[in-house]
Amino acid sequence: MLLAIWTVSLALALAAMMVMAALILRRALLQARARRSRAVVRVLQGKIFAFLGNEIDESALRRALAEADGRSVVDLLVRIDRLIRDDGLRRLVDLIRSLDLDTVLRRRLASPAGADSVAAIHSLRLFPGAETERTLRQVVESGPGAAMRLAAAEVLVDLDAPLDAGRLVSSLAAAGGLESRTSARVFRRLVPQHPELFLRLAGGAPDVRQRVLALDALGEAGMLTALPVVLAAAGDPMVDVRAEAFRVLARLAHPAAAPAVRRGLADPAWEVRTQAARCAAAIGLVELTGDLEVRLDDEVWWVRMRAAEALARLGETGLAILRRRAEEPGTAGRIAQAVLMQGAG
């Protein structure tokens, strides 16, 4: 029995050592390949600059690109638009197209998600056309990871290509891609083409993040037609939605928001009270100076500060309140003094 245990232990140890050796070998091979690829890319870059400087002719560069391995060419393409601009970039892109190397770039998107694949997606904006748009839509719908789906959507927007915004939202939600700042940028750019969709999302999407992104996009677009939806969102049960609603109301700057802002200044969530104070200042709601004064005694520092800053922006009425409160001891007096000094500076 003891012999069997020792035999099994020895076999497991040997197996572990073999796996470790295989992993080390694999890493060494990958590093060696990466070094070779970088070396080839440096050579190609040198030839490209020589071509653009009329030091070598097009046929020499064409041969160099045609003879290079696909991985090196892709590595070159994903960084080339950072190195070359304007007419030189156009000449190079035309040459790459003539060699069908943009097809190599599109094939790269079949590889696992990663920084290089995301870079490859962004480089596809150099090669507009039906094939590129088809590839990008496939990535949007079923790409391996949120980063690639978002990158593909962003490039489609850059190319002014038609994009099913509803399917995009569903795809990003399924991949967990709605938390990225890129998703906010993409949503903002899609609003003009899909206002009804974003109004619907802002007003009733079951996912809080979808509602917040939709509200943000509507606000960035300055869509006053969205005002009823935004006002309703200011009373939403979710804190994030209410806070975003007041950010949007500040951008829209419509005086009809005054009753909602007054309620927001008394909201149980400090995040909402903070945004409501900023909103009052942005819209110029002088009639809410009394409500803002109450917030100078708020239990949360951010609310006190934003209320004081709002009063300072609301003209003489607000400044008079700050000067009076600055004479008082305590937290409200110190906040009022600080904001008045900022204004004096």
Architecture overview:
The protein has about 350 residues and is an all-alpha fold. The protein is built from 20 helices and no strands. The relative contact order is 0.04.
Please estimate the helix content. Answer: over 70%
Largest sheet: none
* Overall pLDDT score: 84
Helix and strand sequence: HHHHHHHHHHHHHHHHHHHH
- Number of extended strands: 0
Radius of gyration: 29 Å
| Rough outline | extended
Number of helices: 20
Q: Which regions are unreliable across 5 or more consecutive residues at pLDDT < 50?
A: none
Set out the fold topology.
Layout: H1 2-52, H2 58-67, H3 70-83, H4 86-98, H5 101-108, H6 115-123, H7 130-142, H8 146-158, H9 165-175, H10 181-190, H11 195-204, H12 208-221, H13 227-233, H14 239-252, H15 258-265, H16 270-283, H17 289-295, H18 301-313, H19 315-326, H20 331-344
Helix pairs in contact: 1-2, 1-3, 3-5, 3-6, 6-8, 7-8, 8-9, 8-10, 10-12, 11-12, 12-14, 13-14, 14-16, 15-16, 16-18, 17-18, 18-19, 18-20, 19-20
Task: Please supply descriptive tags for the structure shown above.
345 residues, mainly alpha, 77% helix, extended
Summarize the entry for a quick read:
The mean pLDDT is about 85. The protein has 20 helices and no strands.
